[in-house]
Amino acid sequence: MHIMTIEGVPYEWINQLQEIHAHVFDGANLPVEKLERKEGLLCLMAIEAKRIIGFKLGYIHPDGVFYSWLGGVHAAKRGQGIASLLMHQQHACILAMGFKKVRTYGRNERKAMLITNLKHGFDIVSTFVDDKGRHKIVFEKLLE
């Protein structure tokens, strides 16, 4: 397995990225147009045998903080540290880009991600209810 990092939309991998996104997020669609609208999009993909087995997407939030947006690992590959590896690589990339802080949102329904964020030094800084009525937990981490 290796990690591939692409700045911008990973057009060559888009079908596989959409497939794994749907797998991780209960069939949810990830339109190319949505990716194209994200300023400073950074895409990390865990690749094994020419297949994406995990991914992490982020972009520059309008307030200038790097926002770690979406990520996940194929169910058959969970528990092997792939999400942590993707997170570490993302943080190294954005630190090299000059960012000092990373932010992400979590939901109580996705406890594994909440735990992963806490284990990797994120702090809970606030909560809010999004426009779909879902409670979100805001995590931030200072990068070193």
From TrEMBL:
InterPro entries from the xrefs? Acyl_CoA_acyltransferase, GNAT_dom
| PROSITE patterns registered for this protein in UniProt | GNAT
Q: What residue stretches are annotated with the N-acetyltransferase domain?
A: 4-144
Source taxon at top rank: Bacteria
Q: What is this protein called?
A: GNAT family N-acetyltransferase
Organism listed in the record:
Lysinibacillus pakistanensis
